[in-house]
Write the structure tokens for this entry.
Amino acid sequence: MGLTEQQKQERIRDLRPIDDVFFEVLARNVSVCQEMLRTILEDDSLVVTSVITQSDERNLYGRSVRLDALCTLGNGTKVNVEVQRSDNDNHLKRARFNASSITVRESETGTKFEEVLELYIVYISEFDFLKGDKTIYHVEKVLRETGQVIDDGLHEIFVNTAVDDGTEIAELMSCFTKKEVKNARFPMLSSEVRRLKESEGGMQVMCEVMKKYERLAVREDHIEKIKKMIAKGCSKEFILDLDYTQEEYAEAEAELGWDE
């Protein structure tokens, strides 16, 4: 049995900006992304011209690449923002994988390496996995022998909601963990959170996205089960007889690398 309208509204009101389903909709608003990035990157003149979210480019980038918000700045620089609540993976390697995938996908064949895009990875988590008791960390490549900082066009920034160091960035992060956001420093974020939770149009959009996430969760569960059955030697006919789809089977094969 599906949820009633009241139950759906209650679920939406319980969501916070750091929750995947809510952040995806927030990130569609270019002004919200611009306000957020101006704070995190400490650049009041930064301009966001467009945003791609997870649902927009899922098939192009692949299931394992997180595109919570891939922003394009006015100067052509890309900024991939990822929100992460789970602490069950290697976050540094995850950020590296996403950066590599985006770089390859966004670079045309024959592009000179000098022209490879400038890319920022902004990784927002609910925990201080680097354990430095800081709200924000900037990763730099440094020559061990000379101390010289190397700029190869990749900039990794890790931000968390767990540490409050009294900065404007920490204040922004505190907004990410609240069900209601009313902060004069962040008017775009405050306004959009209110619209999505209180207006009829906002509620409708949120309901549609929640349905999409529910369908996606079922599909990903099916794919994981198919991968296990393939690994155990079950035949394709046997697996499809269990009411899994051809598309799910093909994706499971592709993830296992058995479709070549």
